[in-house]
Amino acid sequence: MAVVVAVKYRLKPGKRDELLSFVMDNVVNTRNEPGNLAYSHYPSIEDEQEMFVYELWEEQKNLDDHIRMPHYVEFAHKRKPLLEWWEAQIYEARFIQEVKKAPVVG
């Protein structure tokens, strides 16, 4: 079963540019990992200290392998001193119903 990961983290004041200077290496490498279907870091438009991460994996094993990959370990090590806090939620991604088009409202 596919797995969705939603991560939100808050950077220390003034650390956004430093994070953005190295985050894309992790994004590119992660997108090339086996089982990765989507992976992106999104800087908040409203708050320069906030970031959102969206991940989609074919199965839990792929996510488990990801956190041990050398590029991710290096990224996490570089990011850690820049963080105030972070939180993550993991969801099962299950096909519920096919919708051909969006429902009409009103």
Q: How would you portray this structure in words?
A:
The chain is α+β, with helices and mostly antiparallel strands. It has a single domain (2-93), classed as 2-Layer Sandwich (Alpha-Beta Plaits). Helices cover 29% and strands 35% of the residues. It has helices at 16-20, 23-31, 60-66, 70-79, and strands at 2-11, 36-43, 50-57, 83-93. The longest helix is centred in the last third of the chain and has 10 residues, at 70-79.
N-to-C series of helices and strands = EHHEEHHE
- Number of spatially distinct domains: 1
Count helical runs. 4
Low-confidence stretches: none
Number of strands: 4
Q: Which CATH class applies here?
A: Alpha Beta
Name the shape in a single word: globular
Tell me the radius of gyration: 16 Å
Strand content: 25-35%
Largest beta sheet: what is the strand line-up? 2-3-1-4
Q: What value does the average pLDDT take? A: 93
Distance between the termini: 36 Å
InterPro entries: ABM_dom, AI-2_Isomerase_LsrG, Dimeric_a/b-barrel
Domain ABM: 3-91
Keywords: Monooxygenase, Oxidoreductase
Pfam families: ABM
Secondary-structure topology with pairs:
Blueprint lengths: L1 E10 L4 H5 L2 H9 L4 E8 L6 E8 L2 H7 L3 H10 L3 E11 L13
